[in-house]
Design goal:
Blueprint lengths: L4 E6 L13 E5 L4 E4 L5 H7 L9 E3 L5 H4 L2 H10 L7 E6 L2 H12 L12 E6 L4 E4 L2 E7 L9 E7 L2 E5 L7 H7 L4 E5 L13 H4 L8 E4 L3 H4 L8 E2 L5 E3 L1
Parallel strand pairs: 3-4, 4-5, 5-6, 10-11, 11-12, 12-13
Antiparallel strand pairs: 1-2, 1-14, 2-3, 7-8, 8-9, 9-10
Length: 244
């Protein structure tokens, strides 16, 4: 059985709660190195963990909020100007992902739209209930119940005999419970400890996802961070690593 290692480059929410970096989760499989989400602080986090940016083969985006995708313009510009990337890069995300990233790049770096990468850059657009394969990874998506303008998805990835589910941001739904069933690893946002908040999971919701063999909680607001010692699940931090 091949090992899969997951490193939390950024484990925080949009507001830097607890001084944590925004969402960026690095996954290493035998044939692929990729991130799930790429918040605005991702380059700093990857450099802190001494990750070679050019070694990342793909980026999977759960939705189009800045704390989950805002670092991509910086990655792309660094690839062209700093890292001199030559290896292909695949960006996989929800509807309008390519247009959204181009808009971000234009706003953050006016004039940069004239630049063209010398490496192969491929965008793949996913819809809910779609399957996609890349280098031995099999991906299945469902619609997440989050801000609809971000085209939110939750993702289940099968790599060999291992499975990982990423909730992204979103409320508890029957489809999410089904997606998580018997996963080897569930990476779940857990925004609040007890307070119910629209478009997010809180800690009581996690019980409905307990069919997963291991659960790591992330994307925690100040309220949840103050209660991590009261929960049985693993609570991620920047730099936390788990292997399945």
């Amino acid at each position: 059985m091949a090992e899969i290692t997951t490193t939390f480059i950024g484990s925080g929410d949009a507001f830097g709660s607890g001084g944590r970096l925004q969402t960026c989760i690095l996954v290493d499989t035998p044939d692929l190195r990729f991130t799930v989400d790429f918040g605005t602080t991702s380059l700093a986090g990857l450099r802190q963990q001494q990750i070679d940016l050019n070694s990342i083969n793909a980026v999977f985006l759960t939705h189009l909020h800045g704390d989950h995708c805002g670092g991509l313009p910086f990655l792309l510009l660094d690839a062209m100007l700093g890292a001199r990337r030559t290896a292909p890069l695949t960006i996989v995300g929800p509807a309008s992902v390519e247009h959204h990233i181009a808009q971000l790049q234009s706003v953050l770096f006016p004039g940069s739209e004239i630049m063209q990468p010398s490496f192969q850059l491929k965008y793949v657009t996913l819809t809910p209930d779609q399957e996609y394969e890349l280098a031995g990874l099999k991906l299945r998506t469902i619609a997440a119940r989050h801000t609809k303008q971000t085209n939110p998805l939750a993702m289940r990835m099968e790599i060999g005999d291992k499975s990982i589910v990423f909730t992204g941001d979103g409320e508890l739904t029957p489809d999410l419970i089904q997606l998580v069933e018997n996963a080897d690893l569930l990476i779940a946002e857990c925004y609040f400890y007890s307070k119910a908040v629209k478009w997010h999971l809180n800690y009581p919701d996690i019980a409905a996802l307990s069919s997963a063999r291991q659960i790591v909680l992330t994307h925690m607001h100040t309220d949840m961070l103050a209660n991590t010692e009261r929960v049985k699940e693993i609570c991620a931090y920047d730099g936390y690593q788990i292997t399945i």
